[in-house]
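User:
I would dearly like some help making sense of a protein record. Take your time, and here it is.
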Amino acid sequence: MTPTPIARLTIEHLSRLESPKADVISCYLRLDSAARFRKRFLVEVKRRARDLERQLAARDEEGSVRESVAADLERLVSWLASSDPLLYH
């Protein structure tokens, strides 16, 4: 599916945002029928969440930053695991 011009502009805008004081977590998923089969998208999100947590540990971020990001990732993964994201598409 090709993004609409509005979606494309929004994505371009979001990709240019910088947050020097805090990390920003964005999640863009391919939710076509192949990705939804056995919730393969969820496997990919979980893998990327683990990678991000390792990167934060490697950057030696303070504990409160790691805990905050981990809580955000947990909420994201939990919502995706318990919902049908296409209901909100």
